[in-house]
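Form 12-C: Joint structure prediction
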Amino acid sequence: MTYQRPLAVALLSLGLWMGLQPECQGQEVSPEVRWLQGYLRIDTSNPPGDEFLGAGYLARLLHSQGIAASFLVTPEGRTSLYARLPATRGLERRPALLLVHHIDVVPAEGKWDFDPFSGELRDGFVLGRGAVDVKSLGIAQLAAFLALAKSPEPRDRDVVLLAVADEENGGGRGTRWVLEHHGDLVSDVGLVLNEGGANKVVNGRLLWWGIEVAQKRPLWLRVRARGRAGHASGHQPWSATHDLLRGLGSLLALPEEYRVSPPVREYLAALAPLQPPSMAKRFAQIDEVVGPDGLTKKLYPGMTGLFVDTVQVTVLRAGERINTISATASADIDVRLLPDTDADRFLERIRQALGKDLRVEVLVTSPEVAPSPIDTEPYRVLAASLKPEAPVIPTFISGFTDSRYFRERGIPAYGFSPFLFEPQVLVGIHNANEKIPVDAFDRGVARMKAAVRALVTPSETAR
Ligand SMILES: [Zn+2]
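Section 2 - Result
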């Protein structure tokens, strides 16, 4: 929109008179905040993802700094972005460092107090879907990448920037597809930084930073029933919908089996020294707390998922009308497996509970993988970058990330978040009113730049 000049002057004066915030005038915020705002304005809700829009935006930012980027596009048009900075010539190279984040976000459902795709700055926050999960991390990685590109300092690793599609739906058309179809682009990668890092703030005090090294594994299923359609007034106890409900009922009636898997034991042992005395003992001797049927002593709320393979029926589809029997019915089930659960055996148990009349389709599965090692130089460098502020814990998470695809290939992947978040900020993840504090974002960008710089600096000059 263009204004006549006198009108524009009048509007500007009015704005100044009304006390426009400095940030509204395009000053006082970092370039990274501006980049994040632009990224949040792009709707990459998955489905459908439309990651090409986000990839195009990142490519333009890279091009503006003189860096080439490539689009990796699936036959369906799902787009990931790839860029590479070479190591300094003449140095003996270490394996490449890969910085990866996902372009897609979960849909902005629920009631929002602001436009989820405005990227607006308000009251010290950048607002929008993806502000925490995980476009902020993407911009921090991009900023670290661009800082290296400008730096005259020697580096002995190539650095690869990868922004992927489809993470929120399991990564089949994102990271997994890229690794299967463009594996040559990342064949020299020996180290991955991804989402999944965490921190713990209690009563305003930072207790610890977490670098994620292990996680639960998704087993996503679709269960289908078929039967005779008809008028609901008929006597027909065996319909598709009823078969499905009976099968799901038996599935949910299966007893849960509690146990402590090794990565969870290690995680809790690392956390124990940071707990109050009574809880410290329970964490350190977790095998005495977890029995086959459940916990024998109290832990913190929300921890039981660390000890069971969870089964969650999340989507049901059946008839549309009250007086019509549907010929089909289906359910989606989100199963999360512990690191060492035998997926085939668990699936067989599910099939048996559901009964032979229901068809089970596996939508997403993931093999057992070893945790990323912590006795490595990169882990020590990452931990050292966070340590001045709080102890650093190798963590296990109940969620999953694309890191599993790299771990499957034996490549250490670390969930590394440079952002210090208060608990109320984390509430926005996959929820309404997602937003990130500007100061936490800026400080995180600085941490990411420092960590990445330390990872690529030749060791003899690093410390
Ligand atoms: Zn995410």
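Section 3 - Comments
The pocket of zinc ion is lined by residues 102, 133-134, 167, 195 (CB under 6 Å). The domain at 26-196+401-462 is CATH 3.40.630.10 (Aminopeptidase).
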